[in-house]
């Protein structure tokens, strides 16, 4: 059958904007693009301990067989959810199949008609998609601009339930809001604070518990979303909150109710990843690499620079203390050219193109890992300085 013309036109429009996405094999040998911040995805101890954990519980099962409300709520779920809630000092934890499922499940079911959602303009697509599925009124505030948020809160109807939504570490910038100030604002306006900690878990905290907990704010947040597919190196996600919230989600969150549960091996991997998180030296190595990366940016003059005659404004790195560091280089074509040159030198650095980010804010996204060497960090930034000709 002929492919629908409207869909074909959308593909052609994206091709003309030099923004058409492709699935590509990963031939680069030096990783500066994955979310495997601690190297846990390739950790043999986690792999072996996951197997031993399953054998110890006499579980020899490949699949979950159904949703958790039917046949899929196998014996490991309450064990792992109890561990997660204890580690993160939450009353309850509810495991979802992915961070996307968790955000869509929460935001499509919890805010009700007449409620108000105020969300940072840079929140993840999964949050936006969940918000689009409910009947609450939703308004975005300027990225990390808490004064703007405070002014918006003063104008909304305070007889409504208000949800403030942000991320502790933003995936496309690597930056963070002032969480302590955000808690103060939410208390002043009696709003429910919802924080996605996907890129903070494993990276921040004495044992990698996340940025909220590192600041001692866990009791001041209505809900936290955590994921296991990034620094934890495995798969799945969880929503942290009260027992009542957990019961509500079990009854009304469609992405939880109508999906096959995670298989036992995924839960065993989560268990083993937490055990490794408590003893690993990798978090210290990661933060040493983050600091070295930042010092090299400064040494090479990459903090701010001009790029070519057609540059749209000043280019440079966004301030970040997380594992994510982004160098803004305006224009999809410019950015893809530089990324290709780095990849030809075996450095896996990904371009983030519009429309994923706003036009004019395209960027190279560098992800730091515990296993990156100082030599690799210096070399990739030296090459970047050459390719942008500063």
TrEMBL record:
<keyword id="KW-0663">Pyridoxal phosphate</keyword>
<protein>
    <submittedName>
        <fullName>8-amino-7-oxononanoate synthase</fullName>
    </submittedName>
</protein>
<dbReference type="InterPro" id="IPR001917">
    <property type="entry name" value="Aminotrans_II_pyridoxalP_BS"/>
</dbReference>
<dbReference type="GO" id="GO:0016740">
    <property type="term" value="F:transferase activity"/>
</dbReference>
<dbReference type="InterPro" id="IPR015424">
    <property type="entry name" value="PyrdxlP-dep_Trfase"/>
</dbReference>
<feature type="domain" description="Aminotransferase class I/classII large">
    <location>
        <begin position="30"/>
        <end position="382"/>
    </location>
</feature>
<dbReference type="InterPro" id="IPR004839">
    <property type="entry name" value="Aminotransferase_I/II_large"/>
</dbReference>
<dbReference type="GO" id="GO:0009102">
    <property type="term" value="P:biotin biosynthetic process"/>
</dbReference>
<comment type="similarity">
    <text>Belongs to the class-II pyridoxal-phosphate-dependent aminotransferase family. BioF subfamily.</text>
</comment>
<dbReference type="InterPro" id="IPR015422">
    <property type="entry name" value="PyrdxlP-dep_Trfase_small"/>
</dbReference>
<dbReference type="InterPro" id="IPR015421">
    <property type="entry name" value="PyrdxlP-dep_Trfase_major"/>
</dbReference>
<comment type="pathway">
    <text>Lipid metabolism.</text>
</comment>
<dbReference type="InterPro" id="IPR050087">
    <property type="entry name" value="AON_synthase_class-II"/>
</dbReference>
<dbReference type="Pfam" id="PF00155">
    <property type="entry name" value="Aminotran_1_2"/>
</dbReference>
<keyword id="KW-0808">Transferase</keyword>
<dbReference type="GO" id="GO:0030170">
    <property type="term" value="F:pyridoxal phosphate binding"/>
</dbReference>
């Amino acid at each position: 059958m002929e492919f629908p013309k409207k869909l074909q036109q959308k593909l052609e429009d994206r091709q003309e904007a030099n923004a058409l996405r492709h699935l590509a094999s990963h031939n680069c040998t030096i990783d500066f693009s994955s979310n495997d911040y601690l190297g846990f995805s390739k950790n043999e101890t986690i792999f072996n301990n996951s197997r031993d954990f399953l054998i110890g519980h006499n579980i020899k099962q490949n699949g979950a067989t159904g949703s958790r409300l039917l046949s899929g709520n196998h014996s490991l779920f309450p064990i792992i959810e109890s561990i997660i809630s204890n580690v993160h000092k939450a009353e309850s934890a509810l495991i979802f199949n992915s961070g996307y499922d968790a955000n869509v499940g929460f935001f499509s079911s919890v805010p009700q008609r007449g409620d108000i959602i105020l969300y940072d303009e840079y929140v993840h697509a999964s949050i936006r998609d969940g918000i689009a599925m409910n009947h609450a009124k939703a308004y975005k505030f300027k990225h990390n601009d808490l004064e703007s948020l405070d002014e918006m809160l003063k104008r909304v109807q305070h007889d409504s339930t208000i949800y403030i939504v942000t991320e502790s570490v933003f995936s496309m910038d690597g930056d963070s809001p002032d969480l302590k100030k955000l808690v103060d604002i939410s208390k002043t306006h009696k709003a429910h604070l919802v924080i996605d900690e996907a890129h903070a878990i494993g990276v921040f905290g004495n044992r990698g518990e996340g940025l909220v907990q590192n600041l001692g704010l866990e009791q001041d947040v209505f809900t936290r979303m955590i994921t296991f597919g990034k620094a934890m190196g495995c798969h799945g996600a969880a929503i942290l909150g009260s027992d009542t919230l957990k019961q509500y989600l079990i009854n009304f969150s469609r992405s939880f109710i109508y999906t096959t549960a995670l298989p036992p091996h995924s839960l065993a991997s989560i268990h083993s990843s937490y055990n490794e998180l408590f003893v690993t030296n990798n978090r210290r190595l990661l933060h040493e690499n983050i600091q070295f990366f930042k010092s090299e940016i400064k040494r090479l003059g990459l903090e701010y620079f001009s790029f070519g005659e057609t540059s749209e404004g000043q280019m440079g790195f966004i301030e970040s203390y997380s594992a994510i560091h982004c160098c803004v280089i305006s224009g999809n074509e410019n950015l893809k050219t530089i990324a290709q040159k780095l990849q030809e030198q075996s450095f896996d650095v990904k371009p983030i193109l519009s429309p994923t980010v706003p036009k004019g804010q395209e960027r190279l996204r560098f992800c730091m890992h515990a296993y990156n060497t100082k030599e690799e960090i210096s070399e990739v930034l030296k090459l970047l300085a050459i390719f942008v000709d500063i």
